[in-house]
Amino acid sequence: FFHSDKTPYQQDLAHKLSKFQHNFKDIDRLFLWNKVYWWTMNREWAKIDRLRLDKYYSLMRYFLNETISVIKLNEWNIDIAEKHAQVLIEGPLANIPGTQLGILYHLCDTYLPEIRRVHAGPLFTINPKVILVLLEPFFHYLSFSKTVPLQRIMKEILIVIVEDWSAALAAESGEYTDEEVQIIQLLYAHVVEISERMFILASSPDTKNGNRDQIYLIQEQFENMKKFIETLFGVDDEGNSLEESGEEVEYTTKVSDTVNTQDPPVKIKDDNEVPLETNNQTKEGKTGAKSNESENKNTRKRRKRKRKKNKNNANKKRKVDS
Q1: Contact 66, 21 (CB under 8 A)
Q2: Taking CA 192 as the corner, what is the angle to CA 187 and CA 198, rounded to the nearest 5 degrees?
Q3: Please, are residues 218 and 162 in contact by the beta-carbon 8 Å criterion?
Q4: Structure confidence by residue, pLDDT tens digits, 60-79
Q5: pLDDT tens digit string along 48-63?
Q6: Quick one: 162 exposed, middle or buried, by C-beta within 10 A (0-12, 13-18, 19+)?
């Protein structure tokens, strides 16, 4: 695959390598092979030159798609989903030195779209416990993540879910059919599961202090959705009762107004943590420092020339007077 050339051949080979997962009869062996794949990608990632990056991005997308397909073919079996989540936690989303951020960012960008593509429907129509397991690797990463990866996970995973499900709730109005009632019950079950998991994550003593505020903000959005459904439909804690309350409630939460997806969150300084700077920030800082130093140097030169000129004028005047 490393030496493959031309896009059609690369994509065909990536498909064949990814579909090899369906040849395993034993699930444990399948995910052992899966684990070795992600370990190999992480180990060799830094050696891949920029001209070959695109085909490896495609390979990762196809590989993820086929893994999700295996879970779907087994009727979204939660045990198989847990094995997949464990592979990601021990591989590309592990809390160990040498984990490649390029792989993490690509997973963030492709994870939800590939689940939707395989399922061919909204996420909340899958068993909520299975969805929670599939998202667990990212919840795990949030507990120790630095600022930039944290923002990427928030933006590409959690905020996408909040906004999609908020739009689904806002679109529902008028009299509800039996099918719409079932959809809202499913959505409510998902919201409760994720809200509780994020609250546990944010309140855990193992979670970095600098990440808590951002996690709580997202958790608050899921909690708002939960309260909205309970207020409008009278849903109990188990989500069984669903009858219109007759009360007019408008759901207008916009997550982008409350959750910071661009600027880093407020952090409590950790003496053992190395500050994380992007290349642009580093370049801007160096450029600004050089600019200030140059201005100060020019100012000193002008002042020196002015003093020398005044001194020469004074000497000339003394000679004339004498």
Answers
A1: yes
A2: 125
A3: yes
A4: 999 999 999 999 999 999 99
A5: 888 788 888 889 999 9
A6: buried
Instruction: Provide the residue count of the chain.
Output: 322
Give the ranges where the chain is alpha helix by DSSP (H).
7-19, 27-44, 53-73, 78-90, 101-119, 128-142, 147-153, 159-171, 178-203, 209-233, 279-321
Which of 162, 151, 152 lies closest to 190 in space, CA to CA? 162
Q: How many CB atoms lie within 10 A of CB 154?
A: 26
One DSSP character per residue, 288-305 reads: HHHHHHHHHHHHHHHHHH
Contact 212, 152 (CB under 8 A): no
The CA distance from 109 to 113, in Å, is 8
* Phi–psi pair at 127, nearest 5 degrees: -50, 125
163 close to 156: Cβ distance less than 8 angstroms = no
Residue 148 contacts residue 207 (beta carbons within 8 Å)? no
Q: Report how far residue 92's alpha carbon sits from residue 98's, in angstroms, rounded to the nearest whole number.
A: 10
Query: What is the mean predicted confidence (pLDDT) over 171-193?
Result: 76
* Cβ partners under 8 Å of residue 137, min gap 6: 85, 88, 89, 93
- One-letter identity of residue 32: L
Burial class from Cβ neighbours inside 10 Å (0-12, 13-18, 19+) for residue 155 reads middle
